[in-house]
Specification:
By secondary structure, the protein is α+β, with helices and mostly antiparallel strands. The protein contains 21 helices and seven strands.
Length: about 450
Amino acid sequence: METISRRMAEFVSRLSVQDLPAEVIWKAKACLLYGLSIAMAACDSRSAQIAEAAILESEALSGSGSTTVLSGQKATPSGAAFANGVLFQGRGQSDAYGTMAHFGPAVIPAVLALAEQQERSGPDILAALVAGYEVAAALAKDHIKLSVARGWRGSPTYGVLGAAAAAARLMQLGAEEVMNALGFAACFTFGNVECNIAHTMETHFELGLASRNGLISSWVAQHRGRAAPTAIEGKAGFLNLFAGTTEFAGKVTQGLGKRFEILEVTFKRYPTSMIAQSPVYLAVSLARQEDLNPEDVKEVLVELDPFEAEYPGKGRRQDEDPADRGVGTAQGVAAALVYRRASRDLLRRRDDARIARLLERISIKGSEGVAPLCARLIVRTGRQEYFKETTDGARNHLFGYEDTVELVRELQPEMRVSKETLEKMIELIRGLESADRIRPLIMLATQGAT
């Protein structure tokens, strides 16, 4: 029976790094470098500390297993995947596919945990990363907005299938086993946006659990577990449940192996939501170019794509704090106009009088003329009106490997590791095709762990 999970399984089981375009391989390396760098700059994350403590309580191992990046201790592969997934998301700066999905914290920790345990080579790791991103994106590209509109959070919902595909490829499962792994993953997925509304902690742990569930899906399949072949497009399957339709089911696998969606994965300059990246970038640029005095600002208008302006959904938020409007856009724009940058510290401040003054003057609205990932920024002073916009937001946040190197070098002062260690990691990932195992890279990432 020809189904979506079967066609995906054929793609995953046959995927070889030798058949991948060079730009796809370099982008997979960039995702790995970026993900690990963000993790190393998130070691003060309270959610990551909680996640690791919870895992080490019951799944700690001595002398073997997979490494938790936060402390450098060993745990079961699924435990390490969970703890590291939470750490990868702990800074709010993980990679993004569009503005609603962040696959890296689900896919990369699963690959690292399993590759370390099984001593897989660099080529196997690269192929697994591509498999994970491609499967998650194939499902998300036409469905994620529909899922979010129904109250589901896109990242864990689609990330479980990405983690399962990556793990299945790394385990070198056959097509039948991969199909079952994806079927189980479609059943083991989850994640609502109520936590975004309530400002509680669930969202911080979801991608760690997505990574863990993806691993478990592939292990169950490896041991001859059987899942529904129609787990994705069936009447009670993934698409109907999470997107509410199978209208786009025929498009899911059309581009697999032809048009690589990993090339569309974006990285964040600032530790806030992907929705906020373009408006904050415009605000930083304007403040620097015009030598803007924030005390002169009378009014700020930010226009976003209507769907993004309403995230997590029209009418869901009540009594919203101005700093949270546009998923952190107001706070980011205010900080950028005052300080001409948007550091993690500035994006967390709630007691800064100059930022608070601007927050009262910022309006955010959805506009049909603004595309996803884009923004318009209008700043009015007593004497002048300034206008900036980006009409191709994705281009502004796409990074090749060398661009990513520069990005993470700028982030290094906030990392736990030294400049020298980061440079070693950059070179190891640059030559990953020649690596026979991943542990040396993981050991570098844990330097300075306590």
